[in-house]
Amino acid sequence: MGHDTFDIKQYARTARAVVAEGTVMLRNEGGVLPLREGERIALFGRGQFNYYKSGTGSGGMVNTSYVTGIREALEESSFVLNEKLAAAYREWLRENPFDAGAGWAGEPWFQKEMPLTGELVGQAAEESDTAVIIIARTAGEDQDNKAEAGSYLLTADEEDMLRLVCGAFRRTVVLLNVGNIIDMKWVERYRPSSVLYVWQGGQEGGNGVLDVLSGAVSPSGKLTDTIAGDIADYPSTGNHGDEKRNLYQEDIYVGYRYFETFARDKVLYPFGFGLSYTTFSLEARMEEGSAPGGFCSRSPAAGQGCRECGTAAAQVRLRVKVTNTGAAAGKEVVQAYCQAPQGALGKPARSLCGFAKTKELAPGESQVLEIAIPAQVLASYDDSGAAGHKSSWVLEAGEYVFYVGTDVRSASAAGKANIEDTIVIESLEEACAPVTAFQRMKPQACADGSFQVAYEAAPLRTVDSGQRRADRLAQIHQAIAGSADPSDAVEGSGAPGTGKGQPDASGRTEDSVSAAGGGERFACTGDRGYRLSDVEAGKVSMEDFLAQLSDEDLACMVRGEGMCSPKVTAGTAGAFGGVTERLQAFGIPIACCADGPSGIRMDCGSIAFAMPNGACLGATFNEALSEELFEWEALELRKNKIDTLLGPGINLHRNPLNGRNFEYFSEDPFVTGKMAAAQLRAMGRYHVTGTIKHFACNSQEFNRHTVEAVVSERALRELYLKGFEIAVKEGGAYSVMTSYNPINGFWSAANYDMLTTILRGQWGYTGIVMTDWWAKANDEGKSGRAENVAAMVRAQNDLFMVTANAAENSQKDNSMESLKAGRVTRAEYLRSAANICRYLLTTPAYQRMEGRESELDRQLAAVAAQEMESFGELVRVPVEAAGCSLPVEEIPTGKGSSVTFELNVKERGFYRLELTCRVAGQGSLSQVPLTLSQDKQILKTISLTGEDTEWRTEEIVLNPSFHNTTFLKLYFGQGGMEIREAKLALKESLEEKFRAVRASQEESE
Question: What is the pTM of this model?
Fold first, then answer.
């Protein structure tokens, strides 16, 4: 893979392929799909006119040049749409326009559906061959789904539509344009011929759906969530949506892990399910030598044999022959599951341990797939010591049975491995255990071999993470220097590998380094002439380079700036690194980050490509295709001078009601981690990256800043952190964003054990960690505060995002006062600065600062120069010599609105715009940006929040007007801003200078 330059057409073709492969067909009675050439279609549902390309919030705010919905794609096909029915919808829509809501998180989950009559439906049935019904939903940041009509449930109008249409037509197809699974009981009630989840497919969504409907592509998407009969059937529902605290009592039994163990009868559509236009046979076998006897406690790593006892590598290897036994070409996803012995810990009946997707197979064609399953994937985490090895990953003694199939329910046994004695795969130390007592789920065997739900007390924390931090400050110089294994800085005091008591390069022992921050070792040296490029060249160590920075410099270093910082690409989420002139003088560049998982968000109105959502990408089960898509995304990032995309989002679908499930992949951590790693590998080929988020347990949007996740250490390790671990170890992640919520007593940004002990120490992570925007942190036992940056730095959350002005400490954080009071050390700020600088050395921003330009950069710059934005609505305004007031009534302030003023100036010169504005009716953390550009050059982005409820006047200095006409554009990236006055005043006239130039020219002539 790899592309030489940016090709928007190929980008679109790849996105279109993702939508088609991600489409999940749940039902196709009578072979109604694919549709026949020239088939007459009656298209029902207002979603045909209001296609959802993505969910809402930062993950969906992409300005696109076009969006091809399902109707638009069908109109360009060979199918014949019923125009009488379409006319009826258009007439109704005149009185029932799209409701965009008001401001941030204000868009409703659904749009009102047109009531149907039996007469209208009957007439359409007489004139058409097939009915296609579109049901559309959205949700997103700050807006959870709810178990209500219009969200998770259908509305009465939608129920009537299904009843009437399915009753009148013999051939019916239902398309679900949604970001998340919804209630599906209606399928049995109305029995439509075909049902497909087509998700939210970005700007190519309709074209990808067309490819499936027409048969150009056979659907091969698979459910990454279990669809149960009722929302109450999900074990997390009773502990979802609380204002203050959610107990994760279901523990590791989330999604199919619960249903396959305890409640098989509650499932409508199992995890991994999805139909095709063809059929496949699978012949699976376990390779000789991989099991039994294939595991050895001395050989835990995948692919490595044991030199001592000669056993095979610590993995199971499956070979699966897939044959297309049908009449159409298609792809199939092979899924491998393990049934581990219950042992002392208790296990799910099935756990996904591997998957692979075939190429497109012609009828009769076969392909052999190999699936390697490392021992680590099969291991369980012993957080209680019940298996005899507390705080360790173990393979308990017993029989491990491997199942292979096309979904969790239909998979059949392909082999087994027997382990005589429990094997310890990895010994760790307790971290992030809960402090609140609660009961967690555990299987209890029944006489018939099934399991019933039982409960046990979740193990509570026995280690003080604050004391752990204090004990380990002595090793902090290793983290700053970056010269040692990251785990060295977090192992137990005196443990092997820490080097405790050994002299360092200066001859001092670590014992001599002050726990208060290293004493003289970490004192500020002042400017010694070193620049960051000297670190890159090996002329100076990172430690000596950073020693030049004052405490104030370090405090600025951990402050990211935004939203819409003028120091980086206009309209993006944030800037970090060399955010002050002093830091830049040391050769520290400013890196740029931008939302989000569904494409680049630029609130200035700049155009970007809107990609299929995370649920769709996950459903493809196609790592290679995801990599191809994100190679194009990487080039787009480079083109826009953005160093990291704020995504992928890799939290789990713990419950179907989480509003951000559209951004995330699955209820399963294995497929989540694999898909995330694929995206990161792709972006890394072009020296940009993604920031994996939200670390961790962002399971609901309601009260997301304060609602605590109370979860066992085992569930954290096996589920909620596992996707992140895979992204780090297999995807090479080097940028992580913490979540808003507290976990087991600590807000995520202040969770030392999660960020230092586990992420950096046990996983070997060496990149940066940033907060979500305006996130909080806490000292243990106290409430979270956004100002508590000291607690973030102590935990090794390197960047607080965001503040308006780092040098002025506009967020009023407590860095300096905490340093003076000894609540945090200078060494800890140096450690975060080192993490940031090591990251910056990998970025295109650093290369640009050093004046290095590649051929790829030149090509991308040429592409960017060709992309021109339109002016939109034009309003002519005469500007007298003294200035004028712009007609504020002509300024639309809704989301995505823009207006361009053609300013006909009487007197050429420098003008300033005084804009009096505020935000009304929005949540306190709502982001309401307004971007002003003059003659297609961005001047400034004003980014207000929901707290800016008082009138304020912003001053914008315009570029000099050398002609008598200039164009001023206002673009609103989000609704909710009010404009009271917009005054244009002449700051300095240039007419005298122009007259002097003319006079001089006339004299010379």
Answer: 0.88
